[in-house]
Amino acid sequence: MKSSFKLNFIIIGLFTIVFYTSLLGCNQSEIDPGRSTIGNPTVGLIISPLDAHVLTGQFKQFAVNAVDLNGKYSAVTANWSTTIGTISSKGEFAAPEQPGYGLITAKYQDIAATTQIYVDTSSDIVKFSIVPESGEIEVRKSVLFTAVALNAAGEFIRVNPSWSCDNGNITNFGYYSAPGSPMSARVTARQGKWEASAHLQVTTHIPHSVVVTPQTAEVLANKTQQFRATVYDAYGNLLDSAKKNVIWSTTYGTMDSDGVYISPAIPSAAVVIATVYNASGRAYVNSTSASTARSIVISPPNAVVAMGGSVRFTAQAYDSTGNAVALPGAVTWSANNGYISSDGLYSAVGSVYAGVTTITAVSGSLMAQVTVIVSN
User: Which residues are bridge partners to 218 per DSSP?
Assistant: First the structure.
């Protein structure tokens, strides 16, 4: 009897637990669907396009997206309103016939968003820029800048801006000329209230001349001498970056890649040459201290150059017995017609005339001359 009573009590208890568990589970399933219908509430609206421009009498389509708590975007149907022109229920704005400014508002549920609208005439500039906007330009080179103006329809508007620059020169038509030294430059165009700028880096890359120091040196047999090269462009600007491209050579003895000359066991006069692309410079080694320069000879001994052409001259010193020796000093070049550089490159340019030209080389107290025929 007692056992039967205990079994009945256990069965009733289990039934009660299952029953209440079922009720709790049923209540939970009834609540969740109700919560899911609440969803993720909208926390903001985004109108596109923002701060738009439109021509008088034209149309512009606007759209609005709702943003929820998770940052998710979704298109919604909003109530539209505007303070200028008209806007349809689908967000199509109709501009008035007169230019002006207004606000467009989209409202969805209890949230609103607003953007600006500018109604312009076809001659109103809404975007102003210049091309090119940036870049590099070689020293003393030129480039043409152009101002670009657009109206609200994206059409080009003809403009005549004022031009200015902080380095170099620029004409009233936007033709810019770079200065003679590397630097940065800013070119600016102004049209009414509009302003646009371009940024340039004036650079120099092309070696024109090389100066080797020391210009002369006496080196004993099996000894060394350090030479160094300085590279310049055509306008006298230093090209430090070009030093790493110097190639060293010599007419006698040995040169390493760092500009060190090594005299051989049997010394003799030598020319040290530093070359960078098409530019080169020279220095002179006298490995026999007993030899003294008595004369200098220019090579080539004569030349014919056309207008605008060029030819390179070199000078070599000789002792009293006709042996090549080091020059007594750096060579100074001059020409009575045309131009000759410090390293002996003659150019028939500038105010040059056809006829006979005299080339002069001076080293220490020694001088030599040759003639050049400049032809038409």
Answer: 286
Residues 6 or more apart whose CB falls under 8 angstroms from that of 231 comprise: 207, 209, 210, 238, 239, 240, 242, 243, 246, 276, 279
The label of the residue with tokens 């009945």 reads 8
Q: What share of the chain is helix, strand, coil (3-state, %, to 5)?
A: 10, 50, 40
Tokens, residue 286 = 């006298």
Q: Which residues sit opposite 111 in a β-bridge?
A: 108
Cβ–Cβ under 8 Å, residues 148 and 178: no
pTM of the model: 0.41
Say which CATH architecture domain 206-289 belongs to: Sandwich (2.60)
Rounded to an integer, what is the distance from CA 278 to the centroid of its chain?
25
CA 109, CA 343: separation in Å to the nearest integer?
84
pLDDT digits (tens, 9 = 90+) for 193-223: 999 999 999 988 888 899 999 998 888 878 8
Task: Give the CATH number of domain 42-120.
Answer: 2.60.40.10
47, 104 contact by CB (below 8 A):
yes
